[in-house]
Amino acid sequence: MNGAIGLLEQAISYAARSVLDVTPTLLPRPTPCRHWNLDMLLSHASESLAALHDATVTGHVPLIPAGPVHEPTADPAQIFRSQAVRLLAARATADNGHQVLGVGDLSLPAIAIECAGAIEIAVHGWDISQACGQNRPIPDALAASLLAIAPLLIPETGRHPHFSPPVTAPARVGLGDRLVAYLGRNPVRDDNPTEA
């Protein structure tokens, strides 16, 4: 599980750098995720971090979140950073961790949840960067690891409505762009936002 935790920490580090570019005036901007503006995306990513925190601390993640992780008037970028710090602190102090996690009424290997969380946080970090106009690529080492596991967790078929079909990436794009293309995002320009 250490490798997966390392991936999740790298994904959080990357996404947190993207969140540094967020300002209140950017919150209404569209993102590569269809129907979500930057404010909504930050809220979703914060809820994902909170769910990963619950998995770390309790070994269980409810299928339906308990509710928003912040007040509607709170700074969503600060909430994201707070949730990231909270999750990393829980991981640093957790005993060996849970090997199996409850997700709703299912039991899944903890490593699968760790890897899925790393993919989600890294790709949403890219989405945030795009919405802020920074176009910060996912680091190659992180992207290479996530590309290796993404097809196991998110197959090319049966992914709707959570993910759009993979996009064919141009031959010369980097590994981070290949990852976001696999998850239905256009790494070159965002004329066709994805589902999530």
How are the strands ordered across the major sheet? 1-2-3
What is the name of the CATH architecture? Up-down Bundle
Class from secondary-structure proportions: mainly alpha
Q: Treating each run of at least 4 consecutive H or I residues as one helix, how many helices?
A: 6
- Alpha carbon gyration radius: 16 Å
CATH superfamily: dinb family like domain
Compute the number of structural domains. Answer: 1
- Tell me the distance between the termini: 26 Å
Q: What would you say this structure looks like, in words?
A:
With 196 residues, the chain is mostly helical. The chain has one domain: dinb family like domain (Four Helix Bundle (Hemerythrin (Met), subunit A)). Helix content is 52%, strand content 5%. It is built from six helices and three strands; from the N terminus they run ααβαββααα. It has helices at residues 2-19, 38-58, 76-93, 110-131, 140-153, 175-182, and strands at 60-61, 100-103, 106-109. A three-stranded mixed beta sheet has the order 1-2-3. Strand 1 (60-61), helix 3 (76-93) and strand 2 form a beta-alpha-beta unit. Helix 2 packs antiparallel against helix 4 and helix 5 (140-153) runs parallel beside helix 6. The mean pLDDT is 88.
